[in-house]
Fold this sequence. Notes:
By secondary structure, the protein is mostly helical. It contains 2 helices and no strands.
Amino acid sequence: MELFTPDFGLIFWMFVAFAVLFLLLWKFAWPAIMKGVDSRAELIDQGVLYAREAKEQLDNAKQQAEEFEAQARARQAEILREADRMKSQIIEEARSEASREAKKEMEAAKVAIEQARKEARQSFRDEVSAAALTIAQQVVGQQLADPQAQAKLVDNILDNIENAN
């Protein structure tokens, strides 16, 4: 049983060695350990602060991204409305231009038709007068030998015919 019960001298020297070791550790090691623990705690606190700041910045960035996205959507809708308005305006301008061109063409056609009608009427009148003169010369003979008198007579007859119609 001697192995389990230590002697007083052994206990004394163990106590002295423990006290010396305790004093040395308390004097030199304990401040270094506490300094390391404090720096580690401070580092952890700073890490937590950095994490909070990073989370806040991330939340702010998400919020700004959502705002930018909403602004982009609004701008896109505005651009689409503007494009639709411009499309309608261009279509309306094209229609009005086509209408103006059609009116010009119609007016030109009317003028051309009227000119052709006048020319046809004049040509018809000339042919009728030539035929009437030929007939009148044969009928009347020498009485209407003067060409100016013939033209005057034919014009009068044709004017009477036109007025009657």
